[in-house]
Amino acid sequence: MPLDPHIADFLAAxxxxxxxxxxxxxEMRAATEAGLLQLQGEMETNGGYKDxxxxxxxxHGIALRVYSPAGLNAEVxxxxxxxxxxxxxCLGSLALYDxxxxxxxxxxxxxxxxxxxxxxxxxxxxxxxxxxxxATALLARDRGGPRIEHQLLLYPALSRDMAxxxxxxxxxxxxxxRDAMTFCWHSYLGERRHPYAEPLxxxxxxxxxxxxxxxxxxxxLRDEAERYALRLEEAGVTVRCERLPGMVHACxxxxxxxxxxxxxxxxxxx
Length: 270
Fold this sequence. Notes:
- This protein is α/β, with parallel strands linked by helices.
- The chain has a single domain (5-14, 50-65, 77-269), classed as Rossmann fold.
- It contains nine helices and seven strands.
- The strands form two sheets. A five-stranded parallel beta sheet has the order 3-4-5-6-7, with helices on both faces. A two-stranded antiparallel sheet has the order 1-2.
- The longest helix has 16 residues, at 25-40.
- InterPro entries: AB_hydrolase_3, AB_hydrolase_fold, GDXG_lipolytic_enzyme.
- Keywords: Hydrolase.
């Protein structure tokens, strides 16, 4: 399918912009947040949230925001998903993959206080967050952590190899670039390799929870997401893998740019 015309126009306009690139991490974060908020447009609200801080094993705080849909019976425990947002892990260390696992344990322990059914926990994330969600599922399996019922991986980054056809085809000009991913992986790992940090290269995917994996047609990460789905199937894991036609990386933020981006939410819900 051709690239979504609204996204194509946005990419063409972006390529003509004269603004200098952000020079510092703080500037990068501010520019990213402002840009994504503009792409999102008006978002529906349904419910509220409360912020918490879980303490990691190394003493650092893990910021968590617990969203609760409106109209729920507070007396009934509900399922929950621990969702890790994207953003290229910037900037972090190899220990970063361990934080969501510790956050999952915190949610499991605090389930009664949060009104959550600890028997119905899922993990999810987009891009680098999808990487962390997949790593959390692996860690929970290997360390006997809380049982995970499902994993939702949205255009996840799963390997730093960058040797796929989609990396060759969409290295430049399709929102996420090969150079950007090189920067993100190096910021995260340096020159190191680790199967938890690169779930596609885990020795075994047996015993992992069922997965929903959504890839984007014009995304450098497309092929590794679909390869991971295939490896999960080969390991006997129930998988639903869908490719979003005409979409680019980070389309979860583009519903204000093109109505077609909203399809992601429907697929994720189902």
